[in-house]
Amino acid sequence: MVEMTTLRMDRLSIEGAEDPTNGSLPLLHGVARPAFEPGAAPYPDMAANLEYGRPSTLLPYTAQDSYTRRRGMRDLPSLVLENELLSATFLPGYGGRLWSLVHRPSGRELLHRNPVLQPANLALRDAWVAGGVEWNLGATGHWPLTCSPLHAVSLTAPDGTPVLRMYELERMRRVVVTIDAWLPPGSPVLLVHVSLHNPAPTPTPVYWWTNIAVPQRPDVRVVAPAERAFHFDYAEQLRLIDFPETAGGDQSYPARFPHAADFFMDVPDGERRWIAALDGDGRGLVQTSTDRLVGRKLFQWGTGAGGQRWQEWLSGPDAAYIEIQAGLARTQLEHVALPGGETWEWTEAFGLLEVDPTQVHGSWDSARAAVDEAVEILVPRAELEDALSVAGRFAGPADLLAHGSGWGALEVAAGDLSADPLRPFGACGEDQKPWLDLLEHGRLPISDPPAVPVIGAHWRELLEASADDWHAWYHLGLLLLADDDRPGARRILERSVADHPNPWALRALAHLADLADPTDPPAADLLLEAHRLRPDLRELTIELLQALIASDRPAEALEVVATLADADHDHGRIRLCTAQAALAVGDLDRVRRLLDTGITVDNLREGEAALDALWLAVHSGEPVPPAYDFRMSSD
Fold first, then answer.
1. How many CA atoms lie within 13 A of 6 on its CB side?
2. How much is the pLDDT for 40?
3. Do 322 and 277 form a contact (C-beta atoms < 8 A)?
């Protein structure tokens, strides 16, 4: 067989739901502080990282919660890298996800290749899909671009091998992320080079995890170079445990345990960084990297009813999987500081590892030693370091393969980002046009709904110098909120409402409402006022209903429901709110009727226990039906 590598555009035919779209309402909440006990972090840098960098808002992003569970055949653009040993399929429209990695001589799929494309509510912006390898940048959680397109171009390595480059501006951290993938002729591993560039003069918090889904089977053992792990699940705090042997058994076999859990491996300094999921024959996927990626993790859904329901929800029946992961910090609860003007980079490798099964499934020490030796044979550490230097010599021309957003082009136009012929951001689109007007003419045009939000010191300065109407003041208020200036944001948003009553600023004021201040209008009252101005905006209606229920005003929530159009009545999230309000007012028959006719919440949140709680409230002592059982722990 002639040794050669190809990169081609292709189409992926798959049963899937329609792509989620961007909502109208910016995400004003941030990332909550994780639960951990004092002293849970035995390393000084880890203790600092646990306290650092949690964003107070997810601005400038809006939610992606518009999807359903209605699926049909989809034809998705894909990009395929192939040599004589491996075939790698990427989806540029879904965050550049590596959807499939096939070992060609054996025909073995090394990843969990999801048979369906079904968004579900697991990401920072809501929509997320399971399967393959997800690149994860931003803040604790699945990244804001996981269901959004990246730019993609083809480049050339020094030896002539084609390189797939995918890149985008991640707007919350304002970091340029670049993912280069290539398959040198004869290489048994897919090489991936990642770089994170902070164009600002000041540090920014970053978070990176490469999330690799692999099939879960009873004989699969996850092996990593560690004897301890930080354990975290849906019921407990972060704690350091011995790994893999625990009171419950050998945790390196995920299919033996009922509950969902994270195990962040405590890999000692000096150890080579790798993680593998190997079957009873000692074969399976391995991921290794240069030392910048210090963290390794095992995530398991568990074999309990809730974990099985979640996997069916995400991938259909008989498609169980686990995730093995690699990150910039020891745990996913940490953020680290990327200095101003700097670029961090590393190289990862993915391939089929084959190890003597008696060693893989023997003692933990023998498994670790055997896998470590096999990884060095498959991809020597020195070769991975060489690949890191090779990535700096990729050359153009950058032939366009896929379009991302116009936000990078806008920042180039603003002078906050340098133009780069090997990362062409193209032209601004409709979403960026209002901000181009501000940049070029000194005024942000009024629009209703408002322009898509931006963040950044440059835009704040321009609005502070020019804002003189409700729309500009609304956006200035968001910029102040993104900078965590809550008093300043409140003053400007109140000015927006005074100039022209509008639901957008009222909603933001509801977010800022201070429960401890008796002079402050309650958040629910502000949302009621906003809803009266836009009763047709479902996103806003749902927020209002949730606020009324949380404020112990369920009767008012039911009054709002009575005014809604039939399509809104039938929406799963609104049916859930209706049932919760009915339960709170004691109308148990209405709750039972809603449950009996069916409540399907397309964007049920990971860990959300609302449906099983409703069932148990009106069917005490009866088993929760599988359709309503999403419980992630034994509590």
1. 10
2. 75
3. yes
- What SS3 state is found at 514? coil
Query: In which element (H, E) is residue 562 found?
Result: helix 554-562
What gap in Å lies between CA 191 and CA 349, rounded to an integer?
A: 5
Give me the helix-helix angle, 470-482 and 486-499, nearest 10°: 170
- pLDDT under 70: residue ranges of the chain: 1-3, 38, 515-516, 634-635
User: What's the Cα-to-Cα distance from 294 to each of 224, 262, 322, 444, rounded to whole Å?
Assistant: 12, 16, 20, 44
Strand partners, 343: 197
Distance CA 541, CA 391 (A): 49
CA distance 340 to 197: 9
**Measured distance CA(233)–CA(245) in Å, rounded:** 17
Domains observed in the chain = 6-397 (2.70.98.10), 442-504 (no CATH), 513-635 (1.25.40.10)
CA 194/CA 442 separation, integer angstroms: 37
What is the structure's pLDDT at 1?
42
How much is the pTM?
A: 0.97
- Spatial distance between the Cα atoms of 75 and 261, rounded to a whole number of angstroms: 34
Q: What is the pLDDT of residue 549?
A: 97
The residues pairing with 97 across neighbouring beta strands, listed in sequence order, are 91
Which residues contact residue 268 at a Cβ distance below 8 angstroms, ignoring those fewer than 6 apart?
225, 226
The per-residue pLDDT for 199 is 97
Q: Could you tell me where the DSSP H helices lie in 229-320?
A: 305-315
Residue 4: count of CB within 10 angstroms of its CB: 14
Distances (CA, A) of 241 to 227, 230, 264, 459: 9, 6, 10, 47
Could you give the count of Cα atoms lying within 13 Å of 170 in the half-sphere of its Cβ? 31
CA distance 12 to 333: 34
CA distance 56 to 559: 33
CA dihedral 279, 281, 287, 289 (to 10 degrees): 140
Digit-coded pLDDT (tens) for 1-41: 446 899 999 999 999 999 999 999 999 999 988 777 767 78
Residues in the chain, overall count: 635
Rounded CA separation 79/164 (Å): 8
3-state secondary structure of 377: helix
Whether 59 contacts 453, CB under 8 Å: yes
CA 274 distance to own-chain centroid: 22
DSSP 172-192: TTTEEEEEEEE--TT-SEEEE
Cross-strand bridge partners of residue 399: 154
Q: Residue 484 is encoded by which pair of tokens?
A: 């965590």
Q: Look at residues 289, 292, 299, 237 and name the one whose alpha carbon lies nearest to residue 264.
A: 299
> What radius of gyration do the chain's Cα atoms show?
25
Query: Coil, strand, or helix at residue 420?
Result: coil
pLDDT of amino acid 540 = 98
Read off the pLDDT of residues 9-20 as tens digits, 9 standing for 90 and up: 999 999 999 999
